[in-house]
Design a protein that fits this description.
This protein has one domain. The protein is mainly beta. About 10% of the residues lie in helices and about 35% in strands.
Length: about 210
């Protein structure tokens, strides 16, 4: 497929989006803890109208599916403790006191995560001089080519992993996140910036 690697005069080499170039911002968790994430997914419901032997379909509501983050669980920062604290801060208390009537609220649950972000990075163009080579995160950083922002996100499910005497793998925490809606390449603070737009560069973790 020569069109991926060959260029004409004045044209840039086509650079695909790569699965390993990304950062995730989930509450106050450091991006390096995140090992894997699913991107947002939406579905448009449908309504069918039948007439004689014909069926006609009409689009209905947009429904967003949950996203799942797979995190490493180091001793520090302790992800298991982090999400347990998030659950109790959202309003859940173990049934140890009959007089405690606290329950989880949406404000409490969404307040634990804020605006969740999934950032797709591109490759640094050596011709620009930032990074010194394709994919290098140099002084100019790698450009942002895509950003998903999840609004009103809250933790729906947490799996604290499993233990196994025969394995030396890292313990992982799986977190399923529910949200009301998502935006692609849209507004919102990113680090110290007022907004993030395609083509911005990442120079450090926020």
């Amino acid at each position: 497929m020569a069109f991926w690697s060959s260029v004409g005069e004045g044209e840039a080499i086509a650079e695909p989006k790569r699965k390993y170039r990304w950062l995730a911002y989930l509450g106050g968790i450091q991006p390096w803890v995140c090992k894997k994430v699913t991107k947002p997914e939406f579905e448009v419901t449908e309504s069918a109208h039948q007439y004689l032997n014909h069926t006609f379909y009409y689009p209905g509501r947009v429904q967003w599916s949950t996203v799942t983050f797979t995190l490493a669980d180091p001793q520090q920062p302790d992800m298991a403790q982090t999400f347990w604290n998030g659950l109790t801060n959202a309003g859940y208390h173990p049934p140890e006191n009959a007089g405690d009537t606290t329950t989880i609220s949406k404000a409490g649950a969404t307040g634990q995560l804020g605006k969740v972000r999934i950032v797709q990075l591109g490759a640094t163009d050596p011709a620009i001089g930032a990074g010194g080579g394709t994919g290098a995160a140099g002084p100019g950083g790698d450009p942002v080519v895509e950003e998903w922002v999840l609004y009103n996100a809250w933790v729906k499910k947490v799996s604290f992993g499993d233990l196994d005497y025969t394995s030396d793998d890292m313990v992982e925490v799986s977190v399923e996140v529910r949200y009301d809606y998502a935006k692609l390449n849209k507004d919102g603070p990113f680090g110290n910036k007022d907004s993030l737009v395609v083509g911005d560069v990442i120079t450090e973790f926020s």
